[in-house]
Amino acid sequence: MKLTHIDQVQKTVGKLPAPRDLKVIDHLDEHAVRWLSYADFAFISFGKPGEIKLTAAGGDRGFASASEPRRLLIPLAALDDGSIVEQEQSFGALFMVSGMEETLRINGKVSHVADGRATLDVEECYLHCAKSFRRSGFWLPQSVDSSHGDISAFVRQARFLALASINGSGHADVSPKGDPENFLIQENDGFICFADRPGNRRIDSFRNIIEQPEVSIIALVPGCKDILEIKGQAELCTDEYLLQQFAVEGKAPKLVTKVTPASIEIRPSPAIVNSALWPAHSGPEDLIPSEIFKAHIKKSKESSLPAKVARAAVSLPGAMEKGLAFDYKNNLY
Fold it and tell me: Which of 104, 36, 28 has the alpha carbon at shortest distance from 71?
């Protein structure tokens, strides 16, 4: 069955355990700035209503920096494709730190492009959970250096992807997906699809797809310097025969994203090379995900009663740490 309304999606994936924007802040706080100072790789999307493009970005640690709490600076040379950046576009970004399984998501608008640099105005900032990295074994690459241009082999071996989507109002987003080899992407007759696994249930990308189906995808084989780029029209479905193709550990997903590609190609990624993405380093000791989640929840402007209750709960000593450990262990699939 094709899902065409957001209520259908929310009913399928389940209710949010807390208010949707509880962990979202509207600026780059000290935790986000420190994360960016260590980040050496990112996926960044740029778009406007009806159009979304996605590129990888990478370089030395701190290649992207905060000039002020609501302003992010990125050199165009760090992007695999700097030509897609235009003033007044929306952007969605996913910043990665070597050895860390959580990612920092930042959304907003491009305010200025000049002198080889993009200036981005921050509207949303939050830490994303570690599940996609754990499912994919992202920091445990195979001995793969080049794809040799074989798209079908790349699809089978891929274990991580970034999905860029945009809603009818032009707000962009990038969402991470991860699974073991042979389970991330399935090729079918004229389309590819991938599963929705348990996560934070914010369903941002699903909201966007229902409003505006064009998506852009970059898939990775950990250890490979090439990327697979897919652009096309997406839809959300719950067809049982598709769901069963993605069953892992006896658990099938509740929803599958089905994409009819307009283009699909393999290309080398300078960003992967420039960031020296693999082998991974140990995660920095001063980046503690539970503390970042807790800090962002406390700074959230969400004022509902459930938000107040959640803020009180995470303030209890050890509550956030125990909650994350339980969720990561028991709710991967």
Answer: 28
